[in-house]
Amino acid sequence: MVLSMATSIFSNLFSFILPAFLIFFLLLHSSKSCYAFQEEMTTLGTKDLRHSHILQISSLLPSTVCNSSTKVINRKSSLQVIHKRGPCFQSNQDRANAPSHAEILRQDQTRVDSIHSRLSMNFMEEIDAVTLPTKRGISVGTGNYLVTVRFGTPTKKYALIFDTGSHFTWTQCEPCAGFCHDQVEPIFNPSKSKSYANISCRAATCNQISAEGMQQGCSSSTCLYGISYGDSSSSLGFLAKEKLTISSSDVFPSYLFGCGQQNQFLSGNRVAGLIGLGRGKFSFVSQTAKKYNKIFSHCFPSDDSSFGYLSFGKTKLPKEIKFTPMPKSFQSTPFYGLDIIGINVDGHRVPIKSSVFETAGAIIDSGTVITRLPPTAYAQLKSAFQKRMTKYPRAPALSILDTCYDFSGSEVVKTPAISIVFNGGVEVDIDFSGIYYVRNVSQACLAFAKNKDARDVAIFGNFQQKTYEVIYDDVKGRVGFAPGGCR
Q1: What pairing do the DSSP bridges indicate for beta strands 273-276 and 156-163?
Q2: What is the pTM of this model?
Q3: 191 φ, ψ to 5°?
Q4: Which residues are catalytic?
Q5: Quick check: 239 and 173 in contact, CB under 8 A?
Q6: CB neighbours (10 Å) of residue 132?
Q7: CA nearest to 429, candidates 137, 102, 158, 51
Q8: What is the mean pLDDT, run by run of 10 residues, along the chain of 487 residues?
Q9: Alpha carbons 145 and 160: distance in angstroms, whole number
């Protein structure tokens, strides 16, 4: 009877390597400080080597083999991070059915549009679940990075997209009363877990669902949640508590999550669900605050064939780390704010008025791929970059990316370094892997894009965060950046 009623509710709610002599020659005759990329790309770590990059063309192309040498994580409370479309997760069949670059960028723009729409509202404001717009939530977008966690007793592994812009965790559950999409591992079966329990409609926790921007309902006495995203992804099911295991010493026996009975992800998302690391009462960060004190960090590798990490709690901070304060303007949202104060190209400050960045502010987001800048700031960055790239022929635009180059006639490429300067004098030198979005060697595009309106918030995307350990400390209200966090 409960299952039948739930199904009815579901239906209603959601209808190079260079020869040694060539390297030596280039380093001796370059008029500016630079560094060479050989077998792997590395982060610029010293200020006298950040004005330009030199690399072999073949290093621009993605690897089809998982780099297992990057798997070791020497931290207690950590999870391995892998790219959803990389060889460490996908099968050959998955890659054959992967979305085009144009589609990936379209999905990224959908996420950005939904973030801008969300921030134009008061997100934490209580709303009537009956009138909740179907596409109110932010888009899952490309959902690039995954972690594997364990649910239940006995524990079972599940791959989840992790998202600093989302505040709720859910996974697909049997018996899939509505619909479940294809996923890599068997779908979680709550009837086979000794530690699973549904939340009652009478519980105060159930009443918090609508206050957190989700849909709330009941099936008999069992609390139902509904969460929808701007790209038509969604999950609807039972609000429940279950044992969540991060490691043998990091176990949370009563973790609140969504046991999804009717779920929809964009095609190609063969993951079990999503883990929300944003702000909010249901977020992982809030639910584990007593143990981790609202501190976590992540590192995205330079290449999709390598491993990064997601760590929780206090750890020994890298010597190179620098913190920038989070602005208070985003405290009532799921997002973590930043104050951008400038951009450098080739070691020179781009002439952008401070008011350009102050108009709407900025956030950092693990789910947005390409960094978005105010229109005026992007125009100035684009101009400064193009002036230093005149020796290379231009290539056609690729979706939202309009500054593209054809490197097919070159063996090596020299490109200006780019750095973003945040409040407090924190300068983040973008790793070379975060400067170009590469379709192929004849179409490599500057991996920045402009917002549609000067009033739209700027977004520091995951492409530009590559190889940095990014540390979030929500109690002290700061974000830290340490170069060389991973390869």
Answers
A1: parallel
A2: 0.87
A3: -70, -15
A4: 163, 365
A5: no
A6: 18
A7: 51
A8: 46 41 36 34 39 85 82 79 88 71 93 91 40 43 84 97 95 96 95 98 95 92 91 90 96 98 82 95 98 97 94 92 97 96 97 96 96 98 98 98 96 95 97 95 97 97 97 98 94
A9: 8
